[in-house]
């Protein structure tokens, strides 16, 4: 056993075996392998719960899980921008900046970037925010964002917990969540906590990945969201709109976008801008 609290070699072997079975179309064997991963590592650093849900062999989890997201992005930090932006055409931060401009919102006193990653949203809004804060689970990502210089303060933490526990009481007039919702199932807790941190008539801007037939074979689709074959959460437009309104938002924009390329095809999603009701 290692200091991580589980047998990393056993986990790696089980995961590789399950992944090979999945790629070969042996669903039952793959599901058995992913369940073995969870027995070895209940915290689920390899995302076995998401893979089980995508196979239709398990319920959709509440989220991708802190252990998996942290591991995923710590591993990807050094190549993140090259792969996601340059190779896969990810441009959500720029779409956020453009949408805010079209709606007439050019300046913000205080903004929070949830899941800030390497700082792409901070760079897209640089010069338009007096005080920019960012938070991300991945320490490696935060280090890169720090070097970019677009943030006044950066924190390592999970988005929902940060919104709940952040000690400063001063509200934000903008909270952004670019490519965060695809790692969450039920969005109601996030939306409620965002609303609680916004000033009166403050703005929330976020991206989703759309729930469409090609991505909704996994468990949970009847609830308005599902784990797709890309092992990310996809949300239905009606579900997201209802969750925003229930949290006390009025929707200013809800636009179809291409989030990035996925296996050579455009990955459809939505960009939303919502205002907290006064």
Summarize, please.
The protein has eleven helices and nine strands. The protein is an alpha/beta fold and 278 residues long. It has two domains: 42 residues; 198 residues, Vaccinia Virus protein VP39 (Rossmann fold), CATH 3.40.50.150.
Overview of the structural elements:
- This protein is of the alpha/beta class and 278 residues long.
- The chain folds into two domains: 1-42; 79-276, Vaccinia Virus protein VP39 (Rossmann fold), CATH 3.40.50.150.
- The chain has helices at residues 8-23, 27-40, 48-55, 66-76, 80-87, 92-102, 120-124, 139-148, 159-165, 188-197, 237-246; strands at 108-114, 129-136, 153-156, 172-177, 198-209, 225-227, 233-235, 249-262, 265-276.
- A seven-stranded mixed beta sheet has the order 3-2-1-4-5-9-8, sandwiched between helices.
- α8 (139-148) links the parallel β2 and β3.
- α9 packs parallel to α10 (188-197).
- The longest helix is centred in the first third of the chain and has 16 residues, at 8-23.
- 47% of the residues are buried.
- Keywords: Methyltransferase, Transferase.
Furnish the topology, listing elements before pairings.
Blueprint: H1 8-23, H2 27-40, H3 48-55, H4 66-76, H5 80-87, H6 92-102, E1 108-114, H7 120-124, E2 129-136, H8 139-148, E3 153-156, H9 159-165, E4 172-177, H10 188-197, E5 198-209, E6 225-227, E7 233-235, H11 237-246, E8 249-262, E9 265-276
Parallel strand pairs: 1-2, 1-4, 2-3, 4-5
Antiparallel strand pairs: 5-9, 6-7, 8-9
Helix pairs in contact: 1-2, 2-3, 9-10
